[in-house]
Amino acid sequence: MAKPVLTLEHVSLNGQGSALSLELLPGDAFALMGPAASGKTLLLGIMGGTETPSSGQVSRTGGTRWAGIQANRRSTPVSLARALAPREADLTVEVLSALGLWEARDVLTSRLTPGQMAACDLLPSFLGKGNLICMDDTLDFLDPWTLQGVWRLLGRFREKGGALLVTTNQASIAQKLGALIVVKDLKVKFAGTVRDLLAETRTVEMTVETKDAAAIRALAEPFTFSIRQEGDVLYMVAADGQALAAKLLVEGYGRVRAITTREQNLSEAILDLV
Fold it and tell me: Is the pTM of this model over 0.90?
């Protein structure tokens, strides 16, 4: 069995509420999400080794690569990359190209765009040492083209046994990573896979067009959390497991003109938690 990259044992951010116990195995990747000042950056620091938990134990089997770089007025992307990996010429070219920085490799960092500077901040992640990458919101500042290159580099890193922790405000990034930890008020609200979160929280919204709202309400009400009426339209919210039963029952009623359904997405599931 593979040795964990990181192990948390009963870790708490504020000494209150439920503690977090977690093993981060080679290849694992978690998004850390939550409102501003919720504790996600603090948790990233605890997991990455720059902060101390209020309670619990943290153990690691290797070093941490932190995204973020210090540049001076003479720095260029290529000089920063060479300073990190002076004997890795081929790797330097590969990383600069994947980050969209090769054409701007000799441009002073003071003249780079904000997106290019965010890409520069990722250089230590791919040219540094250690089996754990920690990124604090960095991916949120990248354009989709640069992100494509980043996903390729991260995929290779994970295939070689590395693990990844990312704070982000983008549900699409959490969806890509496949697992997340949601925090609020310095408390962990959820830790697990995206699939598990959606299974726990998913609801289905149904819009029913009918001339007999009272009858449809009576049929569907036992299956729904809420029903709202606007004219000839009923807006209903049902649990994922009950939505199909409610829909089939309502569809069999002759005075229904149309039914549309929409499942809750990941962003909505996260908002429900916090």
Answer: no
CATH 3.30.70 maps onto the chain at 203-273
CA–CA distance, 204 with 159 (Å, rounded to integer): 36
Q: Which pLDDT tens digits describe the chain residue by residue (274 residues)?
A: 689 999 999 999 987 767 899 999 999 999 999 999 999 999 999 999 999 998 999 999 999 999 999 989 899 999 999 999 999 999 999 999 999 999 999 999 999 999 999 999 999 999 999 999 999 999 999 999 999 999 999 999 999 999 999 999 999 999 999 999 999 999 999 999 999 998 777 777 878 888 888 888 888 888 877 888 888 888 888 877 787 777 777 777 767 878 887 777 889 889 888 7
Domain spanning 45-53+62-68+124-198: CATH superfamily: P-loop containing nucleotide triphosphate hydrolases (3.40.50.300)
Question: Which residues belong to CATH 3.40.50.300 in the chain?
Answer: 45-53+62-68+124-198
Secondary-structure class of domain 203-273 per CATH: alpha beta
Q: Can you tell me which residue has the tokens 């070689």?
A: 160
How big is the chain, counted in residues?
274
Q: According to DSSP H, which parts of the chain are helical?
A: 40-48, 77-84, 89-98, 114-121, 123-127, 144-159, 171-177, 194-201, 213-220, 240-251, 266-273
